[in-house]
């Protein structure tokens, strides 16, 4: 019932833009940040996730990132990622704005992905500006606890947004533009707590868009959502795909 209501909303209100957070990747075995079992319960973000900490002691920050990058690289897209890629393929999703750095949307086959917190795809040298792909960085990490820049020897920084850093301006601008254009903003697996991404629903609503939220746990926008599902994305989204696919097949049959 709930999946069919969401399918109907997506069908009726195009274009649909999706905003995803850590909750979409937990089913791939990637811990979230803020829940009681999340990463920041074990690692102080000021010591392991801030740009100040990185500048003070990049090797200490890499003691956190080295196993994390290995884990993110081994994780596989789950049914929620695959369903979102399918919805894009069927023409029901315009773009995904994600807070996640894990590249799982891309690996699931989504083409339009805006990574507002960066990703582990590359790491850059704070000193000479050299940029290295994930494979190269993994190679460096196989031989050291922290990857040194092959050109100058400085410790590389993963191109993910650390606390205390600005978000990549082009990505955040594109995210806000998509939110304004969306007739439906579908929030999946985000508690909408981290700004400025948490401002995207307001942007959509003010521009006349509607909001649908699939998340385990409350969000500040629950009361303003047209549809609010307290469910796991991996359960709901494949059912939504099946529903919309069935309707498309029916229409094709009726037209022929
Ligand atoms: Zn360098």
Task: Describe the fold and architecture.
With 256 residues, the protein is α/β, with parallel strands linked by helices. The chain is 43% helix and 15% strand. It is built from eleven helices and nine strands. Strands 3-2-1-7-8-9 form a six-stranded parallel beta sheet, sandwiched between helices. A three-stranded antiparallel beta sheet has the order 5-4-6. A hairpin with a 6-residue loop joins strand 4 and strand 5 (131-133). The mean pLDDT is 94. The site of zinc ion has 8 residues, from loops.
Gap between N and C termini? 29 Å
Question: Unreliable runs, pLDDT <50, ≥5 residues?
Answer: none
What pattern of helices and strands is seen along the backbone?
HEHHHHHEHEEEHEHEHEEH
Mean pLDDT over the full residue set: 94
Please count the helical segments: 11
Helicity, as a percent range: 40-55%
Strand content: 15-25%
What ligands does this structure carry?
zinc ion
Radius of gyration: 19 Å
The largest pleated sheet is described as: 6 strands, parallel
How would the global form be characterised?
A: elongated
Strand order of the largest sheet: 3-2-1-7-8-9
The number of strands is 9
- Helix and strand content put the structural class at alpha/beta
Architecture blueprint of SSEs:
Blueprint: H1 2-12, E1 16-20, H2 39-42, H3 45-48, H4 51-56, H5 58-74, H6 79-89, E2 95-98, H7 104-108, E3 113-115, E4 118-124, E5 131-133, H8 134-143, E6 157-160, H9 169-181, E7 184-188, H10 200-206, E8 210-214, E9 227-229, H11 233-255
Parallel strand pairs: 1-2, 1-7, 2-3, 7-8, 8-9
Antiparallel strand pairs: 4-5, 4-6
Zinc ion is lined by residues 125, 127-128, 130, 149, 151-152, 154.
